Amino acid sequence: MLPGPGEYISLLMGAPTVTEAELEEAGVRVLERFGPNLLGLLVGPGADRVERYKQLVRERLEPGFWSDLVSQDEIVFVFKLADGTIEELTLTDENRGQISLLCSELNGDPLEQTSDLPRYFAANPFYRPVMVACYGVE
């Protein structure tokens, strides 16, 4: 699925206490259920909806997980480190290495795999259409 203007798609895992009612209240729609604690979501449109979703993630994400929001022109990461520290980063050329390292550390994937973040995301069928259409992944 390609998110429209002002919309993001997100895979939410590591936040088992977030309910569908809370997501709906935040303006987030469940597109797919991949398991009991893995949801494919459509966030937005609207900055207020995106911020409400990020707030839910910051509050409810378990340490050692991250969530991401992918639009047609940006990828936002919300990492919750093992000590509970939150790192929120929008992917840029300057922080690509930092984000790749965090993805590698938290997901247990080799850094060589996470270093090309659009290709890394495209390996997941949920993200593949937007990575191909908007980020040049073949």
Index terms:
alpha+beta; 138 residues; three-stranded antiparallel β-sheet; globular; 27% strand
Write the layout of secondary structure elements.
Blueprint: E1 8-13, H1 20-25, E2 28-35, E3 38-43, H2 47-60, E4 65-70, E5 75-80, E6 86-90, H3 96-107, H4 111-114, H5 117-122, H6 128-135
Antiparallel strand pairs: 1-3, 2-3, 4-5, 5-6
Class by alpha and beta content: alpha+beta
**Count of DSSP helices?**
6
Q: What is the first-to-last residue Cα distance?
A: 16 Å
Apparent shape: globular
> Helical content, roughly?
25-40%
Average pLDDT reading? 95
Secondary-structure element sequence? EHEEHEEEHHHH
Unreliable spans are none
Indicate the proportion of strand residues. 25-35%
What is the radius of gyration computed over CA atoms, rounded to a whole number of angstroms?
Answer: 14 Å
Summarize the structure in words.
It is a single chain. With 138 residues, this protein is an alpha+beta fold. The chain has one domain. The chain is built from 6 helices and 6 strands; from the N terminus they run βαββαβββαααα. It has helices at 20-25, 47-60, 96-107, 111-114, 117-122, 128-135; strands spanning 8-13, 28-35, 38-43, 65-70, 75-80, 86-90. The strands form 2 sheets. Strands 1-3-2 form a 3-stranded antiparallel beta sheet. A 3-stranded antiparallel beta sheet has the order 4-5-6, with helices on both faces. A hairpin with a 4-residue loop joins strand 4 (65-70) and strand 5 (75-80). The radius of gyration is 14 Å and the shape is globular. It starts with 7 loop residues before the first strand and ends with a helix. The relative contact order is 0.16. The model has no long low-confidence stretch (mean pLDDT 95).
